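Sequence design from tokenized structure. All designs in this work follow the same two-part layout: the structure record, then the generated sequence. An example of the structure record is given first.
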């Protein structure tokens, strides 16, 4: 999950520049995409409300008279209208939000909860409304949970469609980056990690440019033309056809300079964004607070303490109990296969470091030969990973035939549900570290200890064992700093998909 530049000012709709392949102007496809989202939201809301109203007829055995039928239809229209209004008022279809994953789902969820909260309040305060909407309880019990699932799925469906177009080079935002070469490289890395955002760098204005023509710099394997210095932005916009100017952190621009640039870009209908210089901070933790006309980006504290931790605990325990009841037959079969294979122990228990540095024993189905730990140094050296922080190899000779299957399918990790019930682990979190692992990285272990380790986490759904060490470290720390229940739900959904596809599992 890469973090793009934070929006500072968005001008008028982008001019009719193409996406780099001469297809659809950005202003046109953005307008079409927002309309498609509105149509999808409306269809889902109407269908869910109609489903709830039909369920009331079936379960309550209602036979509507003409007058009561009119009231039922009017109440359904009122509920659907309130729901759609809350989606609009929460800005769920604004440009900076649509397609942004967690933030989009969070706003859709908040709008839905607000709509049904207002509905519940109205049912108590307005007696006549409550009489005709005895269906309120049906809406709360059926329409609310159905909508909380269906609306994000609808957004995901639309998002997948635009991601496919962007993978073909369409529907992209042409960006002119202003800043030092190092800052440009960092911003390009952010764009590369979140390709679904559709940002494409078409030119650079670098600090200290001396005016030589034809110069290029290589960013993320791509040759990008240098179109001038920081003061040549307007000319560079004309040359590159950019519809967005991104100012990287660390430039020489002052607040007055950025404001002046915003006015100069106004006639060209070009957006202006500024990277605030804070990295790996999720959008819900950032807010803008003006002080004396100077905008300040406020970074809120992480949310893993207090009531948030209690909510996560309840969620973990309930889900672990449900998962164990479903997975019990599979676990019994796997236990028998592991035992019959070589007569060794069924489970493998290893000491790991958990919340606040507490050491616990993590359960797994044994997937390696007996006493495999004694050979770890030899195997690591043979794989050329003697100095790596995290060791994992698809060709580890210690893995048994049964073990290879249960590792590919992640069945070997099902016993960790017992660790979740014992509160040593969570369903979602950074992977538990062995004692001493990662200590050479400043602050890494201490920050990870602020939350319980998890059965799955961000790097497991972002490439699993195929990720580099740097990406694993970054994603673990990002999770700790930006935890939320919405993010946990998204990770769990992605985990199911990754497990079914066996992506990066060995």
């Amino acid at each position: 999950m890469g973090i793009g530049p934070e929006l500072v000012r968005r001008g008028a709709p982008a001019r009719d520049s193409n996406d780099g392949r001469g297809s659809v102007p950005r202003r046109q496809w953005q307008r079409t995409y927002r309309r498609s989202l509105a149509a999808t939201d409306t269809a889902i809301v109407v269908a869910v409300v109609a489903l709830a109203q039909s369920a009331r007829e079936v379960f309550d055995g209602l036979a509507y008279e003409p007058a009561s039928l009119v009231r039922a239809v009017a109440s359904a229209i009122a509920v659907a209208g309130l729901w759609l209004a809350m989606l609009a008022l929460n800005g769920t279809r604004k440009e900076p939000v649509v397609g942004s994953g967690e933030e989009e789902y969070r706003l859709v969820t908040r709008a839905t909860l607000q709509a049904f909260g207002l509905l519940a309040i109205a049912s108590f305060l307005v007696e006549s409304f409550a009489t005709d909407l005895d269906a309120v309880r049906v809406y709360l019990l059926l329409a609310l949970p159905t909508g909380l699932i269906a609306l994000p799925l609808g957004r995901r469906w639309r998002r997948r469609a635009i991601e496919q177009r962007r993978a073909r080079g369409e529907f992209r935002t042409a960006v002119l980056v202003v800043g030092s070469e190092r800052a440009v490289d960092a911003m390009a890395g952010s764009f590369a990690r979140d390709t679904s955002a559709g940002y494409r760098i078409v030119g650079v204005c670098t600090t200290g440019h001396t005016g030589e023509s034809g110069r290029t710099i290589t960013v993320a394997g791509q040759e990008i033309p240098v179109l001038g210095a920081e003061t040549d932005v307007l000319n560079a916009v004309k040359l590159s056809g950019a519809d967005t100017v991104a100012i990287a952190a660390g430039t020489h621009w002052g607040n007055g300079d950025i404001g002046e640039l915003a006015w100069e870009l106004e006639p060209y209908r070009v957006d202006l964004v500024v990277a605030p210089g804070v990295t790996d901070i999720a959008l819900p933790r950032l807010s803008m607070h003006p002080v004396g006309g100077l905008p300040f980006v406020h970074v809120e504290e992480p949310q893993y303490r207090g009531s948030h931790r209690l909510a996560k605990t309840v969620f973990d325990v309930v889900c672990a109990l449900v998962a164990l009841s479903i997975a019990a037959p599979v676990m019994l079969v796997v236990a028998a296969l592991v035992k019959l294979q070589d007569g060794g122990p069924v489970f493998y228990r290893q000491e790991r470091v958990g919340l606040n540095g507490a050491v616990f024993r993590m359960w797994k189905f044994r997937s390696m030969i007996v006493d495999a730990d004694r050979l770890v140094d030899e195997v690591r050296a043979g794989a050329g990973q003697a100095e790596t922080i995290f060791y994992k190899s698809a060709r580890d000779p210690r893995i048994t035939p049964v073990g290879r299957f249960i590792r590919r399918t992640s069945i070997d990790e099902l016993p960790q549900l017992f660790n979740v019930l014992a509160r040593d682990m969570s369903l979602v979190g950074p992977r538990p570290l062995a004692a001493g692992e990662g200590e050479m990285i400043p602050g890494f272990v201490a920050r990870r200890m602020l939350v319980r380790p998890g059965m799955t986490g961000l790097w497991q759904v972002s490439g699993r064992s195929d990720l580099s060490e740097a990406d694993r470290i970054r994603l673990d720390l990002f999770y700790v700093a930006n935890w939320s229940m919405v993010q946990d739900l998204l990770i769990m959904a992605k985990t199911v998909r990754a497990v079914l596809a066996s992506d990066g599992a060995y």
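Residues 1-23 have pLDDT under 50 and may be disordered. We note this feature because it recurs in several other targets discussed in the main text.
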